[in-house]
Each structure stands twice: as C-alpha cells, then as structure tokens.
C-alpha cells in the first residue's frame, strides 16, 4: 500500500452526502473518535469508499492469505472472484465521521465505530 493523492469522485460523494441514512457526525467529529470498520466477508474491493472519503482513509489491496483461508468456502469463492481485493483503512486516524463511506458502499460492508 502506498500513499497517494486523494481520489475523490465528487458526483458519488454528493450522492452519498444526500443519503437519508448517512450515519456519523457530518465531518464534525474530532479525528480519532471514530473509525470505519470493513467487513471483509462482504467487501468486493471495487473502491467506492476510496472515491467518497474526503480524508483519504481507504486503500484497496489484497486480503492477507491467512485471513482469506480462514473464511467460509462460499465467501472465499466470492473474494477470489474479485481478485482477492479488499478495502483497508491505513489512515483511519484521519476519519472525521462524515459517514459517506458507509452509505456509498454497495455491499454494506462498512460500519462507523466509536473508538
Ligand atoms: S465500497 Fe464497500 S465493498 Fe467497495 S471496496 Fe469499499 S468497503 Fe469494499
Ligand atoms: S466516515 Fe471517515 S472513513 Fe468514512 S468517508 Fe467519512 S471520513 Fe472517510
């Protein structure tokens, strides 16, 4: 995983901002109070979270082999079909709880957790 410039898709971000179920604190939370938690059994690694996060929290990478092998068979098949790609949160400390990633994720794989 490498540090890259933010990869915002402003159209997707605006759509997520208007979502009625958006959780969190509208970007008003102090950094470090919340963090997004990705359910890798659901994640398909296509990166909508990367494209909407204003604080560049996410990175797409390959799931660790031991974590992959510990998944149930059907989940492993799904992950394999998506090239074993999954979302990581290397900059979770920067999260300000805008909630955009939660509602933008098509697989409902992200929860915003208080730390
Ligand atoms: S938007 Fe959801 S499914 Fe897509 S990469 Fe991010 S966490 Fe995974
Ligand atoms: S809730 Fe946090 S991780 Fe999710 S998009 Fe907003 S700042 Fe990024």
Provide the descriptors you would attach to this structure in a database record:
115 residues, alpha+beta, Alpha-Beta Plaits, two-stranded antiparallel sheet, 5 helices, binds iron/sulfur cluster
What does this protein structure show overall?
By secondary structure, the protein is α+β, with helices and mostly antiparallel strands. The protein has one domain: Alpha-Beta Plaits (2-Layer Sandwich). Helices cover 28% and strands 16% of the residues. The chain is built from 5 helices and 4 strands. It has helices at residues 10-17, 48-52, 65-69, 73-81, 100-104; strands spanning 34-38, 59-62, 85-88, 110-114. The strands form 2 sheets. A two-stranded antiparallel sheet has the order 1-4. The longest helix is centred in the C-terminal third of the chain and has 9 residues, at 73-81. It is globular. The two termini are 24 Å apart. Bound molecules: iron/sulfur cluster (2 copies). One iron/sulfur cluster binds at residues 24, 36, 52-55, 57, 95-101, 112.
